Amino acid sequence: MCSFDTVVAAHGEAVLFRLKIDYERLLSPHKAVDYFIYWAGPSGPKLTLLPRWYMTELEILAAEKGGSWNRTQRITMGIRGTGLLLTGCEGGFVVAELQLNVDKLEDSDAPLEGKLIRLCSDREAVATGTDKWEVKYTTARGGKAKFGDLCGWWRTDVVLPYGNYLCWVDYFRGIIFCDVNHHSPDLQYLSLPLEYVPLGYPDPLCIALPECASPRVER
Question: Is residue 180 within 8 Å of residue 168, measured between CB atoms?
């Protein structure tokens, strides 16, 4: 799942995918990337276009002219690490991407922290156009999980929904849980039962396979 024209995630009857769109009003020559949700419900399929997470050239110029550009949150989404979670309310969902603070990867004593880019929405918000992307800065619950638990590296291989959480999984490290629909989301970490975890970028030729044992909870 490393393309901009691909299925990103799925949960229940919903499938999240993204497409490159030719859009002339961008500041850069790059194509826009828009997200859609395909719903396969009993009343028939439907398609929902999610709000733009990027700004157009006119919006940027207007923000600069109005003096609000420096206060505007810049949102940059990548090509991996985005998940979909259906919530309890009818038609409710959260699309979220977790971006860890990579500047602290080598600070083993620093609590795990990152930036959560999310869209919390429901059927009414989609219909009225009131849903929007937001940035939440999140850290480890109780400061327990540390960057040292990641051994100097993190690569999201898959994002999975679980209960009220989205789970960012690194096959060579572990799982980061985040209650993405909470007003103040935090992070929890669960290491995978690996006999050996290499420092830095993992070498798939020497990494040990997970044993058939219960995973251990870090701190």
Answer: no
Integer Cα distance of 40 and 36 in angstroms: 13
CA distances from 60 to 70, 91, 117, 169 (A): 11, 32, 19, 35
Q: Say whether 133 sits in a helix, a strand or coil.
A: strand
Instruction: Return the pLDDT at 212.
Output: 28
Is 0.70 topped by the overall pTM?
yes
174-178 and 6-11 strand pairing: unpaired
Is residue 164 within 8 A of residue 150, CB to CB? The reply is no
Q: Which of 183, 192, 139, 159 is nearest to 10 (CA)?
A: 159
Output phi, psi for 47, to 5 deg: -125, 130
Q: Which residue has the tokens 């040990």?
A: 208
Residue type, 161: P
**Which residue type, as a one-letter code, is found at position 77?**
M
List, run by run, the mean pLDDT of 10-residue segments along the chain (219 residues).
74 92 63 87 88 73 61 62 89 92 88 94 80 92 91 89 96 93 95 74 45 36
Q: How many helices (H) and strands (E) does the chain have?
A: 2, 12
